[in-house]
Amino acid sequence: MIRIVSYTLICLMLILGSCGKEVCDDTCYWAMDGECDDGGDDSLNDFCEIGTDCADCGTRTVK
């Protein structure tokens, strides 16, 4: 029973897109300056939109 419920939840997450979308580009004005500026985890500030300072922050997952 637990396996069926787990499988069902995983399928629903994939179908509904709750796992999020990966975003990674360097369109932020402050991209590639050695500091993560997109406001996400481990970011120093939030000058940029999430996922727009990929060189410094890495790939982000947004919902």
Number of helices: 2
Residues in helix, %: 25-40%
**Which sequence of strands runs across the widest sheet?**
1-2
Mean pLDDT over the residues: 84
- Stretches where pLDDT falls below 50 for ≥5 residues? none
Major sheet characteristics: 2 strands, antiparallel
Structure in words:
The protein is an alpha+beta fold. It has a domain at 19-62. The chain is 30% helix and 10% strand. The chain contains two helices and two strands, in the order αβαβ. The protein has helices at residues 2-16, 54-57; strands at residues 21-23, 60-62. It has a two-stranded antiparallel ribbon. The model has no long low-confidence stretch (mean pLDDT 84).
Care to give the gist of this entry?
This protein has 63 residues and is α+β, with helices and mostly antiparallel strands. It has two helices and two strands, in the order αβαβ. The two termini are 29 Å apart.
Overview features:
alpha+beta; 63 residues; single chain; elongated; 30% helix; two-stranded antiparallel sheet; 2 strands
Write the layout of secondary structure elements.
Blueprint: H1 2-16, E1 21-23, H2 54-57, E2 60-62
Antiparallel strand pairs: 1-2
